[in-house]
Design brief:
The protein folds into 3 domains: 199 residues, Ammonium transporter AmtB like domains (Ammonium transporter fold); 142 residues, Ammonium transporter fold, CATH 1.10.3430.10; 50 residues, no CATH class. Helices cover 65% and strands 3% of the residues. The protein is built from 22 helices and 4 strands. A hairpin with a 4-residue loop joins strand 3 and strand 4. The longest helix has 29 residues. It starts with a helix and ends with a helix. Belongs to the ammonia transporter channel (TC 1.A.11.2) family. It is a multi-pass membrane protein.
């Protein structure tokens, strides 16, 4: 048997092991992280639907990724902002075991293509799952099934190639990007009663998801350097510094202005800290991470509690989980602040030729408007096109019922054996609505009014 190591002098086992580990951490952010976070933070009637949107997206992205989207994102340049479509080379043994590289930029890594393809897949998957957070409790699941591959193909791949794959923005020195969430306007708001009463059905479950999201983010940023070097450690440390600072800032603001510190608010601050530090986790100093965390715990807080309560957002752009504030606002803020706080030493450790950010006299990193423009144009086109085929929004009857109407399943089946009479009475009342909609499970259909 031939010595595999002798034929792969480029392979670094430590880098390969670290990259696979960080990819798994990022995957855990989605499945089960965001699945249980969404299931816990929504009303009971939406727990199954919310978790299923994440579960489906994780699976659908993988197939699209290996069949055509990876090459569009990281393959040979086709046009200035897109790679050439095609099946990822990892579908063959030879391609999977070959050295990972980005042809457009000429970058190579010390691990195989199979590792790179999986690492980039989990990033793509969580991007779609985060978008879902804006559209919970009203989007037609069939429309979501169609949206995922289309947005991945026509929006994510363009931004991904332009920034990371060696496209024109990477050549200009831009370091990262944030996604867009304009679909909430197009799909429309939740039911009025859901907007007015949307208490989480299971806060401990939400906290489990939040914890998985937080620790999984170590892989998100720690895997960014593509090696197990010193910069990976810096990225992980800065990630946690910014997250803690943001969480504490948000909690303090809640305590000052609302007189009660909120665990849900603390989770929002945690998320904004994770998002804001991502573009510059390995590029800024610790003091820069502290400053970014303080700003991410305050500016999105102001956005959510002032802008989010205006008629525009309250009635038209109904963002179920505040994704616009925690991801769009915090993401844009992170891109800007990375351009401000990136250090020369951090860029050198990341193998970048960028002369740091504004603190080092370089303001070039601040240009992020291309990504915003792509999402503002592509996302509405995709949604309106889907709307010509299937409704983007659930029917009013299904919105009243929730999971049982959409999937024929309930998160907590209290009406089964052992239920108290009051549970059966409540279920029978709900059953009348289910029968009218034609979606009653056998257990409910058998109940008498």
């Amino acid at each position: 048997m031939s010595d595999w190591n002798a034929t792969t002098p480029w392979l670094n086992k430590g880098d390969n092991a670290w990259q696979l580990t960080t990819a798994t951490f990022v995957g855990l952010q989605s499945v089960p992280g965001l699945m249980v976070f969404y299931a816990g933070v929504v009303k009971k009637k939406w727990a199954v639907n919310s978790a299923f949107m994440a579960f489906y997206a994780f699976a659908a992205v993988m197939i699209c990724w290996v069949c055509w989207v990876y090459e569009m994102s990281f393959g040979e340049q086709w046009v200035p902002f897109l790679g050439k479509p095609g099946a990822v080379s990892t579908l063959s043994i030879r391609g999977a075991l070959s050295q990972a590289q980005f042809p457009a930029s000429g970058a190579t890594m010390a691990f195989p293509m199979a590792t790179m393809a999986y690492f980039q897949f989990v990033f793509a998957a969580i991007t779609l799952i985060l978008i879902a957070g804006s559209w919970l409790a009203r989007m037609n699941f069939i429309a979501w099934m169609i949206f995922v591959p289309l947005w991945l193909t026509f929006s994510y791949s363009v931004c991904c190639f332009s920034i990371w794959g060696g496209g024109w923005l990477a050549q200009m020195g831009i370091l990262d990007f944030a996604g867009g969430y304009v679909g909430a306007w197009i799909i429309g708001p939740r039911l009025k009663q859901d907007r007015e009463d949307f208490e989480p059905n299971n806060i401990p479950m939400m906290l489990v998801g939040a914890g998985l999201l937080w620790l999984g983010w170590n892989g998100f940023n720690g895997g960014g350097p593509f090696n197990a070097g010193a910069d990976a450690g810096l990225a992980v440390l800065n990630t946690n510094i910014a997250t803690v600072m943001s969480l504490l800032t948000w909690t303090i603001l809640d305590a000052i202005f609302f007189k009660k510190p909120s665990i849900i608010g603390a989770c929002q601050g945690m998320i904004t800290g994770l998002v804001v530090i991502t573009p510059g986790a390995g590029l800024v100093a610790g003091w820069g991470a502290l400053a970014m965390g303080a700003l991410s715990g305050s500016i999105p807080w102001l956005s959510m509690n002032i802008l989010g309560k205006t008629k525009l957002f309250a009635l038209h752009v109904d963002d179920a989980l505040g994704v616009f504030h925690t991801h769009a606002v915090a993401g844009f803020l992170g891109g800007i602040l990375t351009g401000v706080f990136a250090t020369v030493e951090g860029c050198e450790a990341f193998a970048l030729t960028n002369p740091g950010g504004a603190v080092a006299g370089n303001w070039r990193q601040v240009y992020l408007l291309f990504v915003v423009a792509v999402n503002l144009v592509v996302t509405p086109i995709i949604l309106y096109a889907i709307g010509l085929v299937v409704p983007l929004r659930m029917s009013e009857e299904d919105l009243l019922i929730g999971d049982a109407a959409s999937h024929g399943e309930d998160a907590y089946a209290f009406y089964h054996d052992g239920a108290h009479e009051i549970d059966l009475a409540r279920t029978a009342s709900a059953g009348s609505l289910l029968r009218l909609s034609g979606h009653a499970p056998p257990e409910i259909a058998a109940l008498k009014l």
